[in-house]
Design a protein that fits this description.
Radius of gyration: 22 Å
Strand content: 15-25%
CATH topology of the largest domain: Rossmann fold
Number of domains: 2
CATH class of the largest domain: Alpha Beta
């Protein structure tokens, strides 16, 4: 099958360190390994740091960043409309030209704010369109950033959810959101994040990390965003240090809370006990996770928790004992006491208790790690690609009929 894979979010470079970037690359590779011919069309390719065998075409969405356009009030809304028109026109024209030469069987779009390119192109080209939805983007933009053209953003989202041949949600929370905003329940499927078992496995060699040797290492991998619970983790770590100086905290990633985190570490005189790597290439993540004794996913409480944490599946595939918040997909995936330990979201004392439990019970750490690695075999990119193809085959079969 020939697949046009659309990635139209400027904030997600295909060759990037974000979880979203990893998702694009890993799924595209897995779809290719299934025997498909995949062409990625992206507005932000990024700089390739490792060989990548999937064809990528960078589409010039001139003006899509909004640069040079008015920035406030009603003019900001006009800016977004102009940005959208320029980008979608560029993508549609490029898709038409490529389709005339390649003959795509399927359009697969990673849904991004303001984009209805996939469903519109599918109508023009008379092909099926699958749309992957990773978050309630309109809600995220309103809650954490700024959304001046809310009515138009919602209208575009409703168009995408209503016209896509199928929606692939990463979690039950995202599926519920999509269905509540125009998606057909019977055409909305859940495909969570995953890990590559050939790169993430218990036999990986640990990467040396200065200052950690001899310590009990606790670690977090991911972007430093407010909803990831970094503040909760840091408070729990301070309480652990009061009990013993033998703990070390390794935080792998970058993000909006980086400056806050650095200043807090300095104010609390934790420089020797905490290591911040900043953003690192995905190739280094397995070795850094291997250096951990316990991996954490300390999410705070949220009424509408919708995440599918990539870190969770990579921790599991590495065979690491996990302490995670009892919320959303984490609670669905982690079996408490068997493949990880679950705690109340937002409770640093609960984190302390379960981390200490693992520290002083080596047999429990080992048993949970083994069980987690075994369970992780159900969450691979190859498995996800197979699910995508099963859905695509059904669509093509109906279209042919």
């Amino acid at each position: 099958m020939k697949i046009a894979y659309l990635s139209l979010d400027r904030g997600v470079p295909v060759h990037g360190t974000k979880g979203a970037s990893v998702h694009i690359r890993e799924l595209a590779k897995a779809l290719t390994a299934c025997g498909n011919q995949v062409t990625i069309l992206a507005v932000n390719v990024g700089e390739a740091l490792a060989p990548f065998q999937v064809k990528i075409i960078e589409v010039d969405g001139s003006g899509s960043s909004g640069e040079g356009f008015p920035k406030t009030g009603e003019e900001q809304a006009l800016s977004e409309e102009l940005r959208l028109d320029l980008l979608q026109t560029a993508i549609l024209e490029r898709l038409r030209a490529l389709h005339a030469r390649e003959g795509f069987d399927l359009i697969y779009e990673r849904y991004s704010l303001w984009s209805a390119v996939g469903v519109r192109a599918a109508t023009h080209l008379n092909v099926s369109c699958l749309v992957e939805v990773n978050a309630p983007l309109v809600v995220e933009q309103q809650r954490y950033r700024k959304l001046t053209s809310a009515s138009e953003a919602k209208a575009i989202e409703a168009e995408v959810f209503g016209r896509a041949d199928a929606l692939l949600a990463v979690s039950q929370g995202v599926k519920a959101y999509a269905v509540a905003n125009g998606a057909d329940l019977d055409r909305t499927f859940i495909i969570p994040n995953a890990a590559d078992p050939f790169r993430f496995h218990p036999a990986v060699s640990a990467e040396p990390v200065e200052g950690i040797d001899g310590s009990f290492a606790i670690g977090f991998v991911g972007s430093l965003k407010p909803w990831h619970g970094i503040d909760i983790l840091l408070e729990a770590f301070r309480r652990l240090l009061r009990r013993s100086p033998d703990y070390h905290l390794l935080i792998v990633g970058d993000g909006p809370l980086k400056d806050w985190l650095k200043s807090t570490i300095q104010e609390c005189h934790l420089e020797r006990a905490v290591t911040l790597t900043g953003a690192v290439s995905h190739d280094r993540i397995p070795g850094l996770i291997q250096r951990l004794d316990v991996a954490v996913a300390p999410y705070p409480f949220m009424e509408d928790f919708y995440f599918s944490p990539l870190k969770l599946f990579e921790y599991m595939a590495m065979g690491k004992p996990i302490v995670a918040s009892r919320i959303g997909q984490l609670e669905e995936v982690v079996r408490h006491g068997e493949t990880g330990l679950l705690v109340q979201p937002g409770d640093p004392d609960a984190l302390v208790e379960q981390i200490e439990r693992l520290r002083f019970d080596q047999s429990l750490r080992e048993a949970i790690g083994r069980a987690a690695a075994l369970q992780a075999r159900n969450y691979t990119w190859e498995t996800n690609a197979g699910k995508v193809m099963d859905i695509a085959d059904q669509l093509l079969g109906r279209r042919a009929a």
